[in-house]
Amino acid sequence: MSSAVLEQFRQIGRDLFVAGLISSHGGNMSVRQGDRILITRRGSMLARLEERDLIDIGLEENDANVTLASTEIVVHRAIYRQTSALAIIHTHPPYAIAQSLMKDEIVPVDSEGSYLLHKVPVVEAQLTAGSTEVAELLPRWLKEYDLVMLRGHGPFAIGHLLEEAYQLTSVLEMTCRILSLTEGVGGDVKEYRKGSDQYGSW
Amino acid sequence: MRGARRHGRYTGAVSPATSTSRSLRGLRVDLTTGVSVEDELPPEVAREYLGGRGLGVLLALRGRLYDVDPLAPENLLIFAPGPLTGTGAPASGRYSVTSRSPLTGTVFDGNSGGNWGTALRRLGLDYLVVAGACDSPSYLLVDAGSSSGAGAAGEAPTVTVRPSGDLWGLDVPASLARLRDLHRDCEAGVIGPAGERGVLFASIVNNRGRSIGRGGLGAVMGAKRLKAVVVAGNGAHRPSVGDPERLSFVAYEAEKLLKANPITSQALPEFGTSVLVNVLNQAGALPTRNFRESRFEHAQAISGESLRRDFVQRRAACRGCGIGCARRTSTGDASGEGPEYESIWALGAACGVGELRAIVEANYACNRAGLDTITMGSTIACAMELTEGGQIAGGPRFGDAAAVVALCEATGRGEGLGKELGQGSARLAAHYGRPELSMSVKSLELPAYDPRGMTGQGLAFATSNRGGCHLRANMLGPEILGVPKMIDRFATSGKAGLLINLQNLNAVLDSLSVCKFTGFAMKEDYYARLLSAVWGETVEPQELLRIGERIWNAERLFNLAAGFSRADDTLPRRLLEEPVVSGPAAGRVVDLAPMLGEYYIARGWDGDGRPRAAKLAQLGLSEVAA
Lengths: 202, 626
Hints:
- The structure holds two protein chains of two kinds.
- Chain A is of the alpha+beta class.
- Helices cover 37% and strands 18% of the residues of chain A.
- Chain A has an eight-stranded mixed beta sheet with strand order 3-2-1-4-8-7-6-5, with helices on both faces.
- The radius of gyration of chain A is 17 Å and the shape is globular.
- In chain B, the strands form four sheets. A six-stranded mixed beta sheet of chain B has the order 2-1-6-3-4-5. Chain B has a six-stranded mixed beta sheet with strand order 8-7-12-9-10-11.
- The longest helix of chain B is centred in the last third of the chain and has 21 residues, at 541-561.
- The two termini of chain B are 41 Å apart.
- Mean pLDDT of chain B is 93; it is low at 1-20 and 147-151.
- Chain A binds chain B through residues 2, 4-5, 31-35, 82-84, 86, 115, 118, 143-146, 159-161, 163-164, 167, 194-195, 198, 201-202, and chain B through 246, 249, 252-253, 256-257, 260, 478, 484-485, 487-488, 491, 493-494, 496-498, 501, 504, 523-525, 528-529, 540-543, 545, 598, 601-602.
């Protein structure tokens, strides 16, 4: 593993925690390198990643390192197999989770969220952590959307680079904070965007 | 002459405007026999290869062009717009021409803007295959056939091969003007004197001054004694759009992104592509004097800023494009298109020339003759180094601006040293016993990015299916401009996956056919949504990238059948062994081997660079490989 890759994981992991997108030991990240995956260690603290916290494991075949890999390795593998993703970030952001408990899709009202997300589908599974049910469900959605919300659990964001997935995650939480604020205040949101009535069909 | 009679009428029914049928309708013209026939390919072909470049490689494989001499009548020229061409999708007024290149021997497609592709689709045609050769100089006319145009009231296009008469021998602008006199409202792709004389990097140029520039497809036309392919009559057929309202919405959202992105809304509209001169020079990635250095002391004098100040008259755009990267320029004595960034580099920094006026004049000379400016400039740079090394007596020297202009003109005329330069740098350097001085991959000259300053681009050059090319995939985005995000440009690990996605996506864009500059702002999901709206059914982004992967592997299979191997996936020795002398990339070489190994694994290829059986089966290419 190159020091540059480790540094990328460390910086983004720290940012995820500082931004309140994960709890102390929550969330996971990975990148795909050919037929290998570099994924955070099960139980690692993303804000304090060391070299031993990045686990190198096969995309298709298991090896002994599966004992160390994130609980969500089965989901990450399924996503890489079925999408063009080269990086995945899974987090537990509170406002996004709150919105997912009330809605089947999250449609931003703010400008940044509108540009970058248009719409975020909310999907649900009975077993939300590291389950084959989630592994079967999520890739189908991530073929069409770079970010999908698992109800009550958190978003899975994909990109060609970790930074892309991080950006989408960050924008989602900001969008959901704004939604929660406007909904808390009540009243009608004044529309300013041409074509926003079609965002639900994005 | 045999080819000068009226050919059969295309009588196949064309789709009504609202149809979502994806059968591809085309024409096959044999210049030797004088016969043209209508052709149709089933919807599965569109679903698996889209059109444009994808369709081109499929037909090249089916035609076994890898066994054909590129300049023999048996070689094909496959003209094909894509499913988005002429639909209103942003920057989609494009088309591809595919053939086997006489310069590289690989499968080779060129993609161009302008209006030619849209004009063909307005005749209800998705492709045009030209085979054989005329026995005397001619041009091909595909005509709507009436004032109401093809597609209206049963009218269908007619195909004729006409004697070129006094067209043969005219330069490009004069040829286009003459054809406009002959056929009102026509769109033409023509060759200049370079193509007529078989210069191996002759281009095909259309009415808006846009070129099928690289690989010498103009020489293939010249060998067929085909001066021009003309689409005339202002066809009335409208390319079908399954969900027009949806297309309008997605196109609006796409335009919003293009307008919000400073590269597509400010840099390219304001300066054109030449804005990159200073950007690459500051990064230490502007190849100078045949790649002996990677920074040019006169970069500011030949920059986009200088071009705008001293020569630009107005900006121009291809049909349906809101970016408008093209420049109309004037020296006072002459006027014309460009130069683009790559041309400024090739005729300037690569040759050590810092006089912008001379570069503009040399570019005009190439435009008139119908020459690829990148190969032209790079071959002159090679000749300069051969001269300084004593291999060419009395040849041009670095920094000699007048010699660059004169050699461009001489190459078009096939005179003196120009005749030798017309073979490209690989043959020139080999002839003089210094093959390592050709800065090319698979005999195609490298463009204006020194991979010692952006190592991922080195892998892109080495693995490109058409040779040293920045349009198969350009790591300029992630390595220099931070698109989609900035990565370490000197790192070697972890870049293969990113490059493969870029290669696959660009294969898609060339097949749709959409300008790659949209990729500075848009990702694959936008292209998928645009195509979904046009087809009226869902196409997932991942499916689109899988199509790109299929096209890339099909091209690889073609090249393997043509005799290429892992040994050809490399770079000029200078880039692998000679460290950059000074600047931000000082001390750097390209460490290619580990990147190439990672690339083959990520591609699902074996150690020799051959797609594994499982990969071929996954892509539906097993039969093609067999």
